[in-house]
Amino acid sequence: LARADREYSANAFLMISVNNLAVINETFGIEIGDKVIAEVGRRIRAKLRAGDIIGRYSSNKFGLILVGCGKGALRAAAERFIKAVTEETIATPAAQLAATISLGGVIVPDQAKSVQETINCALRALDVAKSKRFDCFVAYEASPIADMARLRNKSIAESVIAALDDNRMRLVLQPMVSTKTDQAEIYEALLRMERPDGSLASAGEFVPIVEQLGLSRLIDRRTLELTVELLKRHRELVLSVNVSALTCSDREWLTTLQRLTKDRPDVLKRMIVEITETVALEELDQSANFVDTLNELGCRVAIDDFGAGYTSFKKRLNVDMVKIDGAFIKNLADDTSDQIFVKTMIELANQFGMETVAEWVGDERTAQFLRNAGITYMQGFYFGRPFDSADYSNAA
Question: Global pTM?
Fold first, then answer.
C-alpha cells in the first residue's frame, strides 16, 4: 500500500482458497491435507514474478501480493495459478489427489486503501468465486448498496453493544387475553433498545443483524435478567419471553436462569419460554434437551410462529403452548383458507393438550372467530399495544 502510494502504481492482492480440503482431511487425515496445502503453495509460488509475495492467511487460504498488477494482469495471473494447481494431480502417501481452488482479487489502492479493507474486499470476492464453481476467479467490484448495508450492520452492532454496556435495554409488555375471562393473564416480554437520545428501537430493527453476527446470546441473557427482575417484583405477573436459536444450545443461559431464580421457584412457574417452530425442528435433539431442562426447572415452553407445516414435533418436544403465526391471523376474518388452517391447528393443539395463542389479532371479527374456534389466548393491537414494563402496575 505504501509503495503504491509512493510510486503511483497499481498493485493487486489475491486471496486463494483450497476448496476441497475438508473432504481430503475427512477422508485421508489431516497430515495428507497438510501435504496438499504445502504442494498448492509450492505450485503457486513457482508461478510468481520477481517481487511478488505469497503468504499463508489461514488453514486453507493463501494471500498473494502482486506488484505492478492491474485488472487485466490480475485475471491472467489468476488463470496461471489455477492451471498450475490443477493441471497435475498431487502425489501423497495415501493416493494421487486433485486440489481445486477459488480466487478473489482486489486492486490497491484503487479499490482498497488500508490493510483491513484490502483483505475484506478480497475475501468478499473469494466468497462470490466459491459460490459459483470450483477453479473460479472473481475480481472485486464495489457495490454501494452492499457497502451501505455493511456500514449499517456495523453501526447497529456497535449500538447494541453500547446499549448493553450502558444498561439501555428495556422491556415492553403486550397482553395475551384469555378467551374465558377476557382478562390479560399473560404478557409477552418484548425487548427494546433505548437510543442515547431516549427514543426506543424495536427488536425488529436490531435483532436480525444481532443474530447474523452471533450476538444474540448477549441479548437473550440481558432479556432474561430483565424478565426475572420483573417477575420478582410482581408476584402475580406471568411473562412469556423469546429466545434465539443460539440460546437453545447455550448452557450458560440455563445456568444464569438457575442462578437468578435459586431462591424464587415461583418465578420459574410464572415464566414461559418461547422458541420458534423452525428452530425447534432444525435442531430437534438439541431443542428437546433444552425444553426438557426448562420443564424440570418448572418453566412452561411455547412454540412460536406455529404453522410452518410441521406438527410431528410434539412427539419429541414436551411443550405446553403454541402461538399461531400472525401471518395466518391478520386476514383471518376474510380468508377462508386461513380460517380452515387456523381451526385445524387449534383442534390439533387441543388434542395434544396444549394451550393456543393467536398473534396479530386486530379486530373484533377476527377475535370472535377465534373464540368460536376454541383459541385459549389472543394477542394483538386490538387488545393492547406493547407498553413499558415500568407501567405494569398501572396497566394491571
Answer: 0.72
